Amino acid sequence: MIDNHDPRVAEGLRPIINVSGTMTSLGASIVVPEAVEAMRAFLPQFVEMGDLQRKASAEIALTCGSEAGYITACTAAGITLSIAAAMTGTDLCAIERLPDAAGLKHEVPIQMGHMCHYGAPVEQAIRLAGAKPIPIGTATRVDEYQLAGALNERTAAALFVVSHHVVHYGQIPLRRFADICHARGVPVVVDAASEYDLTGFLNQGADVAIYSAHKFLGGPTAGIVAGRKDLIRAAYLQNSGIGRKMKVGKESVIGTIAALRAWRQRDHAAVRARERRALDLWRERFSQLPGLLATIVPDPTANPLDRLELRVDAARAKLAAWDLADRLAAGEPPVIVRDHEVEHGYFLLDPCNLHPGQELTVAERVETICRAAQQDSGTATSLAERQARRQAAMLTWPD
Ligand SMILES: *Cc1c(COP(=O)(O)O)cnc(C)c1O
C-alpha cells in the first residue's frame, strides 16, 4: 500500500484525509496496487499505442459489454471526442478541421436539468468539439416532444448525463431518450463518469458510455469510452485532431486496463462492509454531540455506496456546518468533507477513500472541534463571506 504520509510525497504539502469522495481536486482516488504495479513496470518500455489501445478495447468490451472502447485523458475529454466522432465519422479532413464545424452536423441536444458543473460546465465539453449545445426543456421539467422537436438534419448526437449533480426529477429517462433519438438516427452519448454500473447504460440504449478511470475504479487519471465500434473508431481517430490536446500516455492506458481487471476481481462485499463499519462508528460517536444529527444516506444515483450525512444545528452546536467543515480542513491532518450542499446546513462524509484507521482520526477531529465550540462564546459565521474568501483564494493562485 502507498503510505499517505510518506515524507517524500508529503514534503511541503499537506497530506489529506479524503472523506469528500473521488474528487479530481484532491487527487481523485486511491489507485489500486494492480494499477500502480502495471504502470511502474510499463513506464520504461515502448509499445505501439495502436496495439495498446486495441488491448484496451478488448478489455473494455469484456467489462462493459460494448463492441469496442478506448482510453482518453478523462471523461470530460471523452465527451468532447465522442461528440466529435459523431460529427466527423472517419473523415480525416474533417477531423483536422475541427473545431471548425462548417458543413458538419453539429447540434447536440441535452436536457436542461443535465446541464451541470462537475468542476467545469458539461456544455463546454460539447462546444470544445465545435458543436453547439441545444438545451431541451427547463431545469425541472423536460417533455419528450421537446426532445423530438429538437432533432433535425443538423443534429450530430445527444448527450445524457448520469450524476448526483443533475436534477433527479422531471427529466426523460435514458431508455425513452435513446428511443426518441434512435428513431431519428441520432446516437446517444452518456456521461456516466462516477457510475459503478459499467453495462447498464449501454443496455438502456446508449451508443457510447464514458467513465472516469480515476474514480470508483481506482485507476490512473483517464477516461474510458465504451460503445459502438464505428463511433469508438471515429473517437479514437480524433487523436490526429483535437484529441491530441487530450492525450493519454501508455502508463494511463495500461493502468486503466489493470484497474478494470482488478474491478472484476474485487471483493465488493468486503469493501462495502469496511465502509459500513466507518459509517456506523461515525453515526454512533456523532450522535453524542450537541446539535449534530448523523444519518446514513444512500448514493443519489444508486451506486452501491452509502455516506454519512452530518446535519449541524448551528444554534445548539455553536457553529455552522461550514464552520465545522472549514475547521476540519484547516487542522492537522486536514480532513476534507463533501460539502457541495452545505448551505442547507449539512455535509457528507464519504468512506470510499479512507486508508485503514483514518475513520478514527475523522471521528476524533469532529469531536474535538465540536467540544471546543461548546466552550466558545462565538456562533456561526457567514456563508457568503466564506464563499467570497474561497473565490478570492482561487483567483490569487499560486500565491
Ligand atoms: C467527474 C465527472 C466528470 C468529469 O470527469 P473527468 O474524468 O474528471 O473529466 C464528468 N461528468 C460527471 C457526471 C462527473 O461526475
Describe what you observe in this structure.
This protein has 399 residues and is α/β, with parallel strands linked by helices. The protein is 42% helix and 14% strand. It is built from 16 helices and twelve strands. The chain has helices spanning 7-10, 33-42, 49-64, 75-88, 92-97, 122-127, 144-150, 174-183, 200-203, 229-237, 250-265, 268-286, 314-317, 321-330, 358-375, 383-395, and strands at residues 17-19, 68-72, 107-111, 132-136, 158-161, 188-191, 208-212, 223-227, 292-298, 306-312, 335-337, 346-349. It has a five-stranded mixed sheet with strand order 2-8-7-6-5, sandwiched between helices. Strand 6 (188-191), helix 9 and strand 7 form a beta-alpha-beta unit. It is globular and about 70 Å long. Pyridoxal-5'-phosphate binds at residues 24, 74-76, 118, 161, 163, 165, 191, 193-194, 212, 223. Pyridoxal-5'-phosphate binds next to helix 4.
Furnish the topology, listing elements before pairings.
Layout: H1 7-10, E1 17-19, H2 33-42, H3 49-64, E2 68-72, H4 75-88, H5 92-97, E3 107-111, H6 122-127, E4 132-136, H7 144-150, E5 158-161, H8 174-183, E6 188-191, H9 200-203, E7 208-212, E8 223-227, H10 229-237, H11 250-265, H12 268-286, E9 292-298, E10 306-312, H13 314-317, H14 321-330, E11 335-337, E12 346-349, H15 358-375, H16 383-395
Parallel strand pairs: 1-11, 3-4, 5-6, 6-7
Antiparallel strand pairs: 2-8, 7-8, 9-10, 10-12
Helix pairs in contact: 2-11, 3-11, 4-10, 12-15
The chain binds pyridoxal-5'-phosphate.
